[in-house]
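Whiteboard transcription, Tuesday session. T.W. wrote the structure tokens on the left side:
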């Protein structure tokens, strides 16, 4: 499972700056999606092959007793409890403050590994900046500059070193790994029970350590699926129920581990920011997606129309996904939902032949060439597949950094249509050749 790094520190020490640096490589893979607003507190990062989750607890005030600060502190407390490693940021220019000492006292009780990170240290003597903070009793300070990137790579390597576990085996026979996600009370546990309830649960993997997710294999109409345990759902006897608070971190981990996410929405409620953020996580992770608009039994025609409009307006960046209007409670629409899960899985795992990809690319270029950018005219030459779940199309050529996001989206749509890929996002990666001779001809 991907380790979770949680950033803690008093206001203004540079948590958001470090968060952006730790997550930006991943963001750059997703072309700007109109309508998608990201949750700036949770992100996915990557160093080499290794992925991790980053949580920014901005606004965390360990002494807040009420109001919005208290609510933020509560969420930060939850993140601290679920962290694999805590990065405690302090400001190397401001020196040690009483507020830092309060937070340090709180973190010493967290029972989690804590790395002390001294930020804003560019151009300063490392030994000198760090010395001030030894008094916190949190070990050797790691001296970095989040703004300039100094020491950040080493910081990540040190933070992640204890979690270098072997990659998980993919058991193809177990079918798609499915995560049922959504905000509290939309009907996730009801849907999960409906999905697996009718069929015998074949086996049950108990987690070896607390970091392992629970995976539940089940079978429907002769097809195999593996359900990834999701935020707030726990098995009690024969049924699933919500036994703990909704957790964004667990939701993100489930999304990262699945092949297909089923996003559950509540038709009786307006689409909320939280719905949109969870949808955004699925998109960022590049997972295949099926949307279940639940409680359809509970809403009248007027409300149905309103829900459709609300979805069209607020979740327009999910146009690659199939929407199903279902009742988890009455088990209506579930067969169709699973058919879309199968289709989305097949699309996510598709093999794209190089000649067909290149032909499709040529046809797209013939229909509409990429715009000239100043003196640069991007040249797209050929394409091949660079990955699955999501499918990645690698395009080779020159001056490709000047291809605008709108043209990338045009190419995405072209490939999706040509290969009939329903339910998965598709990524385009450019490889510019800098060989001047390659420009000729
Ligand atoms: N010199 C210097 N300034 C930095 C560095 N990192 C962040 N800053 C600056 O410090 C200020 C605060 O940075 P943020 O990342 O917003 O701090 P934060 O901890 O997220 O603050 P809150 O959101 O209030 O909790 C900004 O003006 C940053 O530009 C750094 O490495 N060096
Ligand atoms: N009418 C109707 N009610 C439903 C449906 N699905 C779930 N509910 C009800 O909605 C409420 C919440 O359902 P849960 O399955 O507990 O929701 P959840 O998303 O698992 O909630 P958390 O675990 O708290 O995140 C319960 O009272 C369910 O009975 C449905 O299809 N129709």
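and on the right, the sequence the group agreed on:
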């Amino acid at each position: 499972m991907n380790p979770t790094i949680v950033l803690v520190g008093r206001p203004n020490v540079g948590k958001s700056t470090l968060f952006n640096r730790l997550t930006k490589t991943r963001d750059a893979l997703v072309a700007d999606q109109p309508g998608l607003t990201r949750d700036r507190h949770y992100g996915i990062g990557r160093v080499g092959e290794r992925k991790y989750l980053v949580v920014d607890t901005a606004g965390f005030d360990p002494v807040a007793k009420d109001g919005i600060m208290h609510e933020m502190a509560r969420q930060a407390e939850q993140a601290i409890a679920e962290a694999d490693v805590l990065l405690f940021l302090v400001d190397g220019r401001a020196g040690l403050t009483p507020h830092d000492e309060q937070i340090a006292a709180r973190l010493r009780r967290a029972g989690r590994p804590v790395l002390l990170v001294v930020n804003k240290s560019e151009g300063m003597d490392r030994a000198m900046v760090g010395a001030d903070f030894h008094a916190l009793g949190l070990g050797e300070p790691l001296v970095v500059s989040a703004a300039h990137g100094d020491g950040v790579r080493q910081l990540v390597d040190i933070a992640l070193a204890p979690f270098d576990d072997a990659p998980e085996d993919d058991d193809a026979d177990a079918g798609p790994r499915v995560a049922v996600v959504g905000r509290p009370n939309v009907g996730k546990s009801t849907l999960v029970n409906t999905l697996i309830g009718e069929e015998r649960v074949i086996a049950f993997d108990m987690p070896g350590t607390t970091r392992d997710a629970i995976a539940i294999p089940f079978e429907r109409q002769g097809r195999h699926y593996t359900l990834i345990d999701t935020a707030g759902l726990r098995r009690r006897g024969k049924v699933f129920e919500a036994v703990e608070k909704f957790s964004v971190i667990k939701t993100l981990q489930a999304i990262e581990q699945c092949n297909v996410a089923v996003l559950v929405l509540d038709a009786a409620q307006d689409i909320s920011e939280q719905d949109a953020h969870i949808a955004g996580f699925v998109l960022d992770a590049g997972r295949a997606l099926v949307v279940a608009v639940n409680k359809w039994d509970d809403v009248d025609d007027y409300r149905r129309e309103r829900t459709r409009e609300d979805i069209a307006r607020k979740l327009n960046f999910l146009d690659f996904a199939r929407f199903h209007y279902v009742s988890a409670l009455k088990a209506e629409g579930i067969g169709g939902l699973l058919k879309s899960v199968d289709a989305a899985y097949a699309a996510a795992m598709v093999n794209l032949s190089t000649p067909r990809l290149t032909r499709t690319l040529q046809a797209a270029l013939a229909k509409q060439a990429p715009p000239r950018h100043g003196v640069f005219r991007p040249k797209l030459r050929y394409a091949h597949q660079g990955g699955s779940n999501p499918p990645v199309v690698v395009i080779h050529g020159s001056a490709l950094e000047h291809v605008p996001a709108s043209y990338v989206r045009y190419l995405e749509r072209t490939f999706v249509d040509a290969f009939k890929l329903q339910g998965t996002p598709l990524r385009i990666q450019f490889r510019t050749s800098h060989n001047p001779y390659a420009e000729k001809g």
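Someone added at the bottom: The pocket of guanosine-5'-triphosphate (ligand 1) is lined by residues 9, 11-17, 58-59, 119-120, 122, 145-148 (CB under 6 Å).
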